[in-house]
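S.,

Sequence below, as promised.
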Amino acid sequence: MIKVGVIGYGYSSQTFHLPLIESLESFELTAISSSQTETVREKYPTVSIFDTVHDLIVNSGVELVVITAPNDVHFPLAKLCLEHGIHVVLEKSMVTTSCEAEELTNFAKRQSLILSVFHNRRWDVDQAICLFGLPDSLTARCLTLRKNSNTTDYFHVLLHYKALEVVLHASSFSAGPNRRFHMEGTNGSFVKYGFDPQEEQLKKGIVPSEAIFGLENSNQFGTLYMESNNTQIETDNTVNTSISAVKHSVRGLVRYLANRQPCAPVSPL
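The prediction came back faster than expected:
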């Protein structure tokens, strides 16, 4: 079994990482570092609780550390883990600058250690590039629409390919149901609403080992509109959503740590 330590006991740790770690037989939750020592000890009485990150890294004997601390300390904490021969999974965002990301990546390679980044879902640009590759060019517009906001809350991005156009769009001003996917082709189109159900299920206490985990409600299934007899459009072709499983990425990590087999489901750019 792979001994795992978790740094931080906030939302992402409690909602995603700890349930995922506990759901896999190949992982042994060994240590947690948090300032909420009594709260964590009550929840995990058999796990070693450390009130400092340094003690967990140096004294816990873990082989893998999941870092869920604030983003601005990701770099020094990950570097310290790698220096002590420990594999690292960083909660998004990886680090605060591209220079830090490059330095950590190169250092992990020199140490022959895994450095991975956890995402609770695939973001739009990432998803599009995974499906279609890098575009020939792009057009983008990003705005701050909310009053007194300093953060971009609207984007409309066009990815231009030779025989394909991909539109990525999001806005904070969208109270009604939002299309998640809309695809158009020569013989029909596909429309789907709703998000991946796993986060909401985890928040409700549904664990990854349960049979219903990752199952989407039928009212979120997509609809395929197909041309029939060259004139008529069929509108009742419901497409069931495949079962989601964020734990597949964690299993890939397990395979690598156990057998040194490639584990990345998507090739890095």
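The chain has a mean pLDDT of 88.

Coffee later?
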